[in-house]
User: Which sequence fits this backbone?
């Protein structure tokens, strides 16, 4: 069960690769698909590893990606 | 798990003018990364954003004032600090941030930076150092390292570069720090600390310029520069600023170098003027209504 996920606005991406390089769980990769401007936006290759730490969001110079944590996880964990 | 059961929202977007993004910055430019840290630092504070103003000069990093959804002003080349000084003195309630580049702050506006630090005016100065005049076409700036190629130095620069933290420290700033655009979390913490301090706070941020600096000097792309920052950076808090000079290929000394208390310009002025100084009295409702008559 992943702790979080990322939201990607592909049309803003300029394909610099900062998020791919600095993701602590190495869960991102530049896709082979193009966006409207001809850059390769990132996509998740191992969604189950994502911790939602938002380091990709901190590095992204174009505000195209950000990580978020699932809020329900903690409550579920406590109930279990 | 579906994402429909809670709202997915990037907090940084609240501080951006949505009609202005995507930005004009080149792919891999580090300025956007510094804006992320700055936005997170602002959001994490109890700061009234309606009383926060951002001033910037000309250059790539000068565009920040246009992208941030704060009161902002884009001044002429090198004159961001004089404008911000006037803004702070006229309205001391404001938190004024100068966000500009190395060419703007230290080359064209160099004197203003020195004298703002000497007066210790209550400003936060963020200098994004990409080591070149990037927007105007890659000319050598005061911060271009010796023997680097640029448009105006085709045989390599003969001049040694300026060490900004040392300059600002010597002139009397109360907070001096340097990070690179790789150190996002540290930069956020430093900015949050600097926002709370009084006096001139100076933060230098090294940032890659893939289009001019990296390309002209065969230093690879922006990602190579970021990995290079990661390898070469040495964190030394409280380091003497004369030891922080940047050498091509050498260590990049980063950290919070100076953190001292010194009376700022407004406090000193008020103390010295004593009873001669008076704030403008607040206007009563009658005066306000008299001032705005229906005939004019």
Assistant:
């Amino acid at each position: 069960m992943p702790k979080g996920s990322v939201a990607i606005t592909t049309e803003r991406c300029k394909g610099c690769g900062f998020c791919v390089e600095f993701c602590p769980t190495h869960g991102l990769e530049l896709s082979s698909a193009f966006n409207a401007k001809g850059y390769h936006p990132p996509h998740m290759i191992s969604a189950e590893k994502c911790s939602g730490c938002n380091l990709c969001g901190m590095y992204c110079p174009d505000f195209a990606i950000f990580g978020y944590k699932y809020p329900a996880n903690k409550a579920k964990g406590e109930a279990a | 798990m579906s994402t429909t059961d809670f709202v997915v929202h990037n907090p940084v977007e609240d501080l951006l003018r949505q009609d202005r993004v995507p930005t004009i910055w080149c792919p891999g430019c580090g300025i956007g990364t510094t804006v992320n840290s700055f936005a997170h630092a602002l959001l994490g504070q109890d700061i009234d954003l309606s009383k926060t103003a951002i001033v910037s000069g000309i250059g790539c990093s000068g565009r920040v004032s246009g992208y941030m959804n704060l009161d902002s002003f884009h001044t002429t080349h090198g004159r961001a600090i004089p404008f911000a000084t006037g803004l702070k003195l006229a309205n001391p309630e404001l938190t004024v941030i100068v966000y500009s580049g190395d060419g703007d702050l230290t080359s064209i506006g160099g004197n203003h930076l020195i004298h703002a630090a000497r007066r210790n005016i209550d400003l936060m100065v963020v200098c994004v150092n990409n080591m070149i005049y990037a927007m105007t076409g890659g000319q050598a700036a005061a911060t271009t390292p010796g023997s680097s190629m640029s448009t105006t130095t085709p045989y390599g620069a003969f001049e040694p570069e300026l060490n900004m933290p040392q300059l600002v420290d010597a002139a009397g700033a109360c907070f001096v720090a340097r990070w690179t655009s790789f150190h996002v979390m540290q930069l956020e913490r430093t900015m949050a600390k600097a926002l709370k301090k009084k006096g001139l706070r100076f933060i230098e941020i090294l940032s890659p310029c893939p289009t001019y600096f990296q390309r002209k000097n065969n230093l690879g792309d922006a990602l190579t520069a970021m990995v290079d920052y990661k390898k070469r950076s040495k964190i030394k808090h409280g380091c003497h600023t004369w030891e922080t000079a940047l050498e091509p290929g050498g260590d990049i000394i980063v950290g919070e170098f100076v953190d001292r208390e010194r009376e700022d310009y407004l406090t000193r002025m008020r103390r010295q003027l004593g009873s001669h100084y008076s704030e403008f009295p607040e206007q009563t409702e009658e005066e306000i209504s008299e001032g705005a008559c229906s005939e004019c």
About this structure: DSSP finds eleven helices and eight strands in chain B. The first strand of chain B starts at residue 52 and ends at 56. Chain B has a mean pLDDT of 91. Residues 56 and 74 of chain B are 5 Å apart (CA to CA).
